[in-house]
């Protein structure tokens, strides 16, 4: 059920025409944004003047951050909005869509640990992730994005064992099956049939045929288009006005939004802790990663075969085409460098680190040429007995807004944001709309109990 509308949070009254995508606009909150509302109101005044007074006011949500987490939350808020209930979802991102770690992710998705063990609630995470990928793909098919380039590669992923002990663990974990995600244990011959030239020193590897890799930037754009299409379709079908807007602007403090929204959902990745209200409170460690984009020179005739899987090892190769792949990733713990740009020195250090690791499992990578590098900051959550689990929850107790259920967090997606984002967005949107934090699994909110206990 949607949260009951509270007129104190209403920015704009009456019926407004659906706003266009305003990406790249940098509205001043009190000035141009209200100006923009006023303009929209007057241009649609003719059509709505007689009926506006009687129309219900929309529920308004602000989603801070347009990475995997923020876009998933936005999509699920729109998807589960009850028919006939007007809804406005405003996304804020200082860098635009994919401005943080999501935009540089290598794009590998599978529900297993580095040792091939299934992660906590892996089946649900996997299912919800595929659902969002499919929503984004549908939008591409509908032609609502101009970029016709490929977004998803269903080529599977292979992980060769790197030590004898590792080989035994992979074998044991491969036998623990999940019906929606098959894993196979392969010997050297079988592995090399899949990837000619693969080095399988310990005669064993785990193969995940259902695993996929995506082009993160294209996926995020397509998911935002899917949000817009959903809002457009609902509004034109007359089932209640839905609106999704993107504001390219930085939010420096939650105070900036106070009084304007029913709820604010914070999906700021590694920068969540930079909000003054959350400073020093989130149990996150930051870790910068660099990926190198590699191309096979035109003169080289052996291309990466179409059916061959991507490769996981101490360095991974996310294959995007016969002559194009992403090689990752470095782990610079404690870095606070959020920038996606990488200096020539940093790019060169990353290449020196990654290339030998990748070549130890796929020697042919030496023939590929680096054509670029990008970087991002991971927000790593604490390790628990169930693994490194993301952080969810209502933040009102923490930011001193007791009882309002207004501020929510989706954070600490670590190095697995793609796998996690679907289910986390779904659970959070349900909790936000029903104003019920108990919907969230206690394993994902336990960090709050520890924090509140420590604060007395
Ligand atoms: C090099 C690298 C490779 C990776 N590869 C993979 C992979 O292959 N598979 C995988 O599953 N995961 C991968 N990850 C991890 C994945 O990228 C993260 O888990 C995921 O991106 C986190 O998503 P998020 O939405 O929580 O944060 P982000 O993507 O960081 O999104 C936060 C957004 O908030 C915006 N923002 C921040 N502060 C403000 C502010 N004050 N005001 C307004 N906007 C703000 C930022 O611009 C950003 O767009 C990789 C990470 C790195 C660094």
TrEMBL record:
Domain FAD dependent oxidoreductase: 61-430
Coiled coil: none
SUPFAM superfamilies: FAD/NAD(P)-binding domain
Cellular component, GO, one term: cytoplasm
Pfam family, one: DAO
Domain of life, per lineage: Eukaryota
Protein name: FAD dependent oxidoreductase domain-containing protein
Organism of this sequence: Spirodela intermedia
Lineage: Eukaryota, Viridiplantae, Streptophyta, Embryophyta, Tracheophyta
């Amino acid at each position: 059920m949607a949260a009951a509308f509270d007129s104190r949070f209403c920015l704009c009254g009456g019926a407004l025409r659906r706003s266009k995508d305003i990406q790249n606009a940098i509205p001043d909150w009190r000035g141009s944004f209200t100006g923009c509302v006023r303009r929209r109101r007057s241009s649609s005044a003719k059509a709505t003047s007689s009926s506006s007074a009687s129309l219900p006011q929309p529920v308004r949500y602000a989603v801070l951050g347009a990475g995997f987490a923020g876009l998933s939350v936005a999509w699920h808020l729109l998807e589960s909005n009850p028919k006939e209930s007007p809804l406005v979802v405003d996304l804020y991102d200082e860098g635009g869509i994919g401005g943080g770690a999501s935009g540089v992710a290598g794009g590998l998705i599978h529900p297993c640990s580095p040792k091939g063990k299934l992660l906590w609630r892996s089946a649900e995470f996997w299912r919800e992730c595929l659902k969002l990928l499919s929503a984004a793909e549908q939008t591409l098919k509908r032609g609502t994005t101009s970029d016709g380039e490929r977004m998803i590669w269903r080529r599977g992923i292979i992980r060769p064992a790197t030590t004898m002990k590792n080989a035994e663990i992979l074998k044991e974990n491969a036998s623990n099956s999940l019906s929606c995600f098959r894993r196979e244990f392969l010997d050297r011959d079988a592995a090399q049939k899949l990837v000619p030239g693969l080095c399988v020193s310990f005669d064993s590897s785990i193969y995940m045929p259902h695993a996929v890799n995506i082009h993160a930037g294209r996926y995020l754009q397509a998911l935002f288009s899917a949000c817009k299409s959903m809002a457009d379709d609902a509004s034109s079908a007359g089932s209640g006005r839905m609106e999704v807007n993107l504001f390219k602007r930085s939010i420096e403090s939650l105070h900036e939004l106070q009084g304007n929204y029913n709820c604010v959902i914070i999906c700021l990745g590694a920068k969540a802790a930079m909000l003054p209200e959350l400073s020093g409170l989130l149990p996150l460690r930051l870790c910068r990663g660099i990926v190198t984009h590699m191309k096979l020179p035109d003169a080289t005739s052996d291309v990466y075969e179409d059916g061959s899987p991507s490769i996981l090892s101490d360095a991974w190769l996310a294959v995007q085409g016969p002559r194009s792949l992403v090689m990752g990733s470095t782990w610079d713990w404690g870095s606070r460098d959020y920038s996606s740009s990488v200096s020539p020195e940093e790019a060169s250090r990353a290449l020196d680190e990654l290339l030998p690791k990748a070549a130890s499992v796929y020697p042919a990578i030496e023939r590929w040429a680096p054509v670029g590098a990008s970087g991002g900051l991971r927000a790593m959550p604490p390790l628990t007995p169930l693994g490194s689990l993301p952080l969810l929850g209502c933040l009102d107790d923490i930011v001193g807004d007791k009882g309002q259920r207004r501020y929510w967090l989706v954070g600490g997606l670590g190095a697995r944001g793609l796998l996690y984002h679907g289910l986390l967005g779904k659970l959070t949107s349900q909790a936000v709309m029903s104003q019920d934090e108990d919907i969230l699994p206690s394993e994902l909110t336990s960090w709050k109990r520890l924090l509140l206990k420590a604060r007395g």
